[in-house]
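Researcher: Next entry in the queue.
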Amino acid sequence: MKYFPTRALCFGLVGHQDQRSWWGVGFGMGLGVLIWLLGWSLAMPVNAQTSQTLSAAVLGVHVLNPQEITEAKTLVDIKPSDQQWHYLTIPLTLADLTKKAEWQEFFSQAKSQRMIPIVRLMTKFENGSWKVPTRRDVIELTEFLSALEWPTEQKFVIVFNEVNHANEWGGRIDPAEYAAILRFTANWLHTENQNFAVLPAAMDLAAPNGTQTREAFSYLTAMLAADSEVFSQIDFWNSHSYPNPGFSSAPTRVAVNSLRGFWFELEFLKKHTNRDFRVFITETGWADSSSTRRRLSDYYTYALKNIWSDPRVIAVTPFVLRGAPGPFAAFGFLDQNNQPTNQYRSLQQALQRIDQS
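Model: Structure for this entry, 357 residues:
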């Protein structure tokens, strides 16, 4: 999901141009993924895939503002008496560095509300794109986070966003530069001795090769060409596995640009790093439209039972809690009057079905 200045924390949407099948990594790897997945699913005990689903702890939500934490908890916590922890993805921009009290209040509320923050580093929007971070930017963002009292011992930090889009990286596509920034940021966070866990920028898995975007696996391959050990610096993988094309495909679809996109990413990483990463899906979700509206509850139910229950998935934070007014409205769980949308009702119905199953 693309971020541009609007209101609140200043984000907006540019739709993905997703009309391609996944050829960038090659037929051989794609076939290998399918064979591996078949063997993995057949070998798995019957109850293993539903163990996380039944507790729903894996599920959270993506917010844009610290003030949204109470509404976020209400959305995902259908049984408050269980005192379950849930995840919350939130962006931190350079403009937030003057708001320490506000962020400390957010973290304090997160502790009392049992919400685990996943903080995504961002810079500032200028000249039509997000500014490429300097080392000074990274240090200041890290120092800001280090000075806060977090609600959890492990502190999850995402190193920027969808950098295979030029407008997320200073108006250019530069995998080598991002690899260098990722290594520097990961090293700086780890040497803080604050128990930071580092996640890379998620890829837009629907992006084609062009002047303004680069296909995800082509981008990742270029990162490895620039720094063959860059992914040894991170602790977990980060994925934006959306139901494309058009944020509207059925959850049964198997493709790199589907809800199962993270499968292909983890197989790519296994092949190139020999590591078995666990993954945070920090953005996902359908657009509420005429083609999805009646099916959303069933779609969420299927995803919870059959996709997000994958034991490699630590958290799923659908985008976005409050999307209106503006271009996020079709994705929002709350409308501009702070009232539940069809997205909200559909997700809660799905959670209740899972809880009763």
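Model: The chain has one domain: 27-356.
Researcher: Noted, moving on.
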